[in-house]
Amino acid sequence: MFRKPISRLVLSSLALAVVAASASWAQAEETVVIESGSAVSIEYTLKLDDGTTVDSNVDKDPLTFTQGTGTILPALEEALLGAKVGDTKQIQLTAEQGYGAVNPDAFQEVPLERLPEDARTAGTMLMAGAPDGQEHPVRVHEVKEETIILDFNHPLAGQALNFDVKILSIE
To answer: Which of 5, 8, 88, 95 has the most CB atoms in a 10 Å sphere around its CB?
Structure first.
């Protein structure tokens, strides 16, 4: 009924195996990257080529989305593939990768009286109800004597988009 003592060599080997397994686990955790299906949270600033800031969530709630679902612009999703938590990226999208070129067929001339007086100024942004119940932004493009030309293009159509992005979390 004598127990055989465990040698120090066996204990040392066991300790090394535990340390190696822990290091391997920690390393795997550090290498989580954005891939299809990842739940991602980012901080971003969007600027136009002239430097105008269009949108930013810095110091606000992060933008959270699931990679590959089309919640954000597809070209932006693609540019974020493989990024890790803490990465920062500057991503430039062409107009075509963003909201597309300006569509000349998206302009509509309407009678002046169809708009309230305070909206009869070029550049005024309005919301228009679509048949599906959704509301879409519409910009007053031009005011004429008896009509107004409305622009139904996305407000960023025809613009290159410049994103500064920081990856906050990936799940």
So the answer is: 95
Residues 95, 92: Cα–Cα separation, whole Å: 10
Handedness of CA 26, 27, 29, 30 (dihedral sign): positive
Query: What is the structure's pLDDT at 22?
Result: 52
**Is 137 strand, coil or helix?**
strand
Judge whether 157 and 96 are in contact, CB under 8 Å: no
The CATH code of domain 104-151 reads 2.40.10.330
| pTM higher than the cut 0.70 | yes
127 Cβ contact partners less than 8 Å away, ≥ 6 residues apart:
135, 136, 137, 138
**Residue limits of CATH 2.40.10.330 in the chain:** 104-151
The encoded tokens of residue 57 equal 């969530």
User: What is the C-alpha separation between 78 and 68, in angstroms, rounded?
Assistant: 8
Residues 6+ apart with CB under 8 A from 152: 106, 107, 108, 128, 136, 138
- Side chain identity, residue 125: M
Residue in 129, 160, 158, 153 with CA at minimum distance from that of residue 139: 153
Overall CATH class of domain 8-103+153-171: alpha beta
